[in-house]
Specification:
Layout lengths: L8 E4 L8 H11 L3 E4 L12 E6 L24 H13 L20
Parallel strand pairs: 1-3, 2-3
Length: about 110
């Protein structure tokens, strides 16, 4: 999974300049020491760079991915049934919703996913 669609990012109101910016920078410095960069949209892939784009979610609101592209196994890792089962409870609770996007048949999704 390489390319801009897989860049590492965090979305919070105000981005690094917002109310959470100082806490994000402090937590990162204490634990991870990643390079935090204000995201501007259409940012490049971050693989191998130790960089995380911090997006202002007021400017760049989150967009839910297709349901079939969430809670599935990775190419290199298999996840538990409990993890796979989260999608059903999140749909029922309204925290996830069906999208108008067609199923991604390349990833093995079916129309029922």
């Amino acid at each position: 999974d390489i390319g801009a669609a897989y860049r590492a990012l965090l979305g919070v109101p105000g981005g690094l300049d917002g109310a959470y910016g100082t806490a994000i920078v402090a937590a990162n410095a204490a634990v991870h020491n990643m390079t935090l960069v204000e995201g501007t949209g259409s940012d490049p892939d971050t693989i191998g760079t130790n960089t995380v784009f911090v997006m202002d979610s007021d400017v760049f609101p989150a967009v839910q991915a297709e349901v079939c592209l969430q809670f599935h196994d990775d190419a290199s890792a298999k996840y538990s049934e409990a993890y796979h089962g989260l999608v059903g409870s999140l749909l029922e609770s309204g925290r996830l919703h069906d999208t108008d996007c067609p199923a991604n048949l390349i990833s093995g999704c079916s129309e029922a996913d």
